Amino acid sequence: MPTIEENLRWWNEKYDWSQKGEKWSASWGGSETQWYASIFPRIHAFLPAHSILEIAPGYGRWTEMIKAHCEKLIVVDLADSCIEACKKRFHKDTHISYHLNDGKSLAMLQDATIDFAFSFDSLVHAEADVIDSYLAQLARKLTPNGVGFFHHSNIGVYVDPSTGELPDFLDNTPGRATSMTARRFTECCSAVGLRCIAQELINWETSTAITDCFSLFTRRDSHWARPNRVLINKRFAEEASYLRKVMLLYVESGYRPDPIQWTV
């Protein structure tokens, strides 16, 4: 169960950022393929948006993609090394502002100013108290029809309630938050006046366990509000593998198909 302090120490001091986070997109063949074929299709209905908040951008691989879909982009991270890296990478983009926080605060934002809140591949490491805090604040920070999309942990469903431990077959080396589940996310939304309107529960890389969740949420009185729709996607890892093969076919420099494949 990584604490905020442990997350800060890891991402600010210990993690090797030389690849700018691209290693996490390797299963898709790169961040561009992952964005255009996997992430963007899931959120395109809410873009463009006037004002976007990105929580925990790391070195900005999703910032690079989402910055073209808004007039104002606000990035918030608890690691000053990540904030400085994003400032350097996007120094020509004057519509981006940067804020260092304590890992759970959005006090720097005015109420009712965020049209779309986004976090991907980062909050899987955030425990329930962090998610609770962000959602409670977003209930105020979102515009009346604002929407949020969070990628978070679901590994908590595998925790043995009598021991607090995960089963031996489940490798949690990446450090997913064991106190988070899809159900916990919906309960927190309801408690603060938000409504979770869609959840996709997924596996990741080679695992068959449903360790992750994409949750879409909005204000209770938003025109997007509806009963929650839930999909358990046991083939998400296969999707990534397939997209990587497609990328290699059309994009990778130097790739040549075996001529025999084209014999008719």
Description:
The protein has 264 residues and is of the alpha/beta class. It has one domain: Rossmann fold (3-Layer(aba) Sandwich). 29% of the residues lie in helices and 23% in strands. The protein has seven helices and eight strands. The protein has an eight-stranded mixed sheet with strand order 3-2-1-4-5-7-6-8, sandwiched between helices. Strand 4, helix 5 (128-141) and strand 5 form a beta-alpha-beta unit. Helix 2 (31-43) packs across helix 7 and helix 5 crosses helix 6. It is globular and about 45 Å long. 38% of the residues are buried. The model is unreliable at 260-264 (pLDDT under 50).
How would you name the CATH homologous superfamily? Vaccinia Virus protein VP39
Q: What proportion of the residues is helical, as a percent range?
A: 25-40%
How many DSSP E strands?
A: 8
Beta-strand residue percentage: 15-25%
Mean pLDDT: 91
CATH architecture: 3-Layer(aba) Sandwich
Secondary structure class reads: alpha/beta
The strand line-up of the biggest sheet is: 3-2-1-4-5-7-6-8
Summed up, the domain count is 1
Biggest sheet features:
8 strands, mixed
Stretches where pLDDT falls below 50 for ≥5 residues?
260-264
| Approximate shape | globular
Which fold name is given in CATH as the topology? Rossmann fold
C-alpha Rg (nearest Å)? 19 Å
Order of helices and strands: HHEHEHEEHEHEEEH
CATH class placement: Alpha Beta
In DSSP terms, counting alpha (H) and pi (I) runs of 4 or more, how many helices?
7
Terminal residue distance: 56 Å
Could you give a quick summary of the protein structure above?
The chain is an alpha/beta fold. The protein contains 7 helices and 8 strands; from the N terminus they run ααβαβαββαβαβββα.
